[in-house]
Amino acid sequence: MIGKTSIGTSFGGCVRYQFEGHKHSQEQKQAEVLEAVGVRMSSASSMTADFNRGRLLNPDLGRAVWHTSVSFNPDDAAKLTNEKMLAVAQDYVQGMGLDQTQYVIIRHHDQPHPHFHLIANRVDNQGQTISDSHNYARSQALLKELSIRHELTPVAERRAHKQRPDQLQGADRSRHQIRQTLEQVLASCSSGQAFAERVQAQGITYQVRQNETGKAVGVSFAKDGHTFKGCDIARQYSYGGIMKQLEANYRQQQAAQAQKRAAHAVKPVEPVTPVVRAQTSPEGPKKAPELSEVERKWQADYQQQVQRVRLLNEQIRATNAWIEQAAQTLAQNPTLKTAQALKQACPDYGLRQVLEGQIKAGESYQFQVEWRAEQRQTLSRQAGSWFGLSSEAKEAKAKLAYLDDPKGSGLDYQMQEKHYSFWIHARQETKAKPSFGFQTSAYQKQEHALVSLSQFAQQRETAQQQEQAQQQRLNQYQNRGPRLGGRGMS
For this UniProt entry, which segments traverse the membrane (predicted)? Predict the structure, then answer.
């Protein structure tokens, strides 16, 4: 992701550009409003009017327009739905300290790369100025964090493995250590279990990501509080790359053992002691049952399938155990802070979405409660000033009446016109306190069953025969000559 921020003076020009492009241009911005807070989104003029009304809370601030454009890597286009982009944008708004003011998030579809624009008022809801100090450095650091959190292509940076290890710090140092460990482990491991044990022994945890159908789609590694996708460490450490290397190691190990057995079969083995001869059956050692021709044909593929299933089942067991523990933790301490901590470490996509929804509801509820308490305290003090006869006291009393009963106070229109910032928050009644928790059965998955070699071989053989038959029919159809008796022939 790449971000560019500018600070300006005209909301009109900035908003108009989002919908119409540059002045006198013929371009179509194809704008789509993803979210608007404190401003109307029915038209560019009404949005501009709302921003200008909000800046009146601090008329001395000339450069009140905050405009940021965030562009994504084209490789991420498939996963960047409106919901996904909005989630990234909302985290960016909060991370830059713009969540207590008016703002709008607009997506454009006029470029091959996905991108959105953020317009915010630097005058917050309390009339204070939002600082733009070091906005470039803060934005770059935040975008780097968000690319990891939302599993997007990260901001381009100098490759850590090209630097001297003793010069690395923080995330770069952790990435380098993970890379070294994976290189050593994959040089000899031939099973998922051995891989997991050796990686974890080095203080590295790993997580296989699955889609909604349970299919493995990626892997990430974490060390010292820093998490990286496997492909971000090196291309060969993606989930597919790791599985390919484990399978190659397994085949190499099997070939070496086969050669060793063949060598021993040629060389006669002398009995060590008479005891051994006495215990040896006259018929010789029992031989393993002969495999059928179709089983021998698919034996190597079956061993690869076994490795895949075992690795997936190991991950499913670990994920299910985490979900069970998380449910117990949240039941014992159902708070916003607990839900936020669990969401950061959650390995299941569906459960993360549920926790995120509960967290947003909890944050909204907490903000409304704190805001109303602060407003009542301030307004009560103002209402009692000058024996309650001053214009400020009368205004405070009117606002208190609006907080107690917005519909019955008769002040809705006046609040919009004269006290817009107050009206934005006061018009939303405090909702019921949200709850935190979930049922483990809705997110835990069943382990994959492992079929026998004979079943696997028969399934693969049947599928191959069907594919060959279909290809044969296709070839016959393509090689068929022109048909006689067509239209126009007698």
Answer: none
Give the CA angle between residues 79, 83, 89 to the nearest 5°: 95
* Strand order across the beta sheet in which 216-223 lies: 205-210, 216-223, 226-229
Strand stretches in 322-382, DSSP E: none
User: Could you tell me which residues are beta bridge partners of residue 32?
Assistant: 107
CA distance 64 to 128: 11
Residue finishing a domain among 427, 457, 485: 427
Rounded CA separation 192/448 (Å): 15
Domain carrying residue 134: 2-150
Neighbouring C-alpha atoms within 13 Å toward the C-beta of 13 = 12
Q: Model-level pTM?
A: 0.38
- Which letter, b or e, does each residue of 338-359 get, where b requires 16 or more Cβ atoms within 10 Å of its Cβ? bbebbbeebbbeebbebbeebb
- pLDDT of 48-74, one tens digit each? 998 998 888 888 888 999 999 998 887
Are 144 and 28 within one domain? Answer: yes
Q: Which of 369, 395, 427 finishes a domain? A: 427
User: Sheet containing 65-71: which strands, arranged edge to edge?
Assistant: 2-8, 65-71, 115-121, 103-108, 31-37
Give the amino acid at 218.
G
Q: Are 179 and 53 members of one domain?
A: no
Task: Return all residues near 350 (Cβ < 8 A) that are at least 6 apart.
Answer: 212, 443
Does 122 share its domain with 239? no
Q: Residue 197, CB half-sphere, CA atoms under 13 Å: how many?
A: 6
Count of domains observed in the chain:
3
Structure tokens at 470: 């279909």
> Residues 304-359: pLDDT tens digits?
888 888 888 888 988 999 999 999 999 999 998 999 999 888 888 888 889 998 99
Residue 421 lies in a domain: yes
Claim to verify: residue 41 and residue 113 sit in the same structural domain? yes
* Position 291 in a domain: no
**pLDDT 10s digits, 346-402:** 888 888 889 998 998 888 888 888 888 888 888 888 887 766 678 888 888 888 888
Q: 130-157 burial string, b = 16+ CB within 10 Å, else e?
A: beeeebeebbeebbebbbbebbbebbee
Do residues 130 and 197 share a domain? no
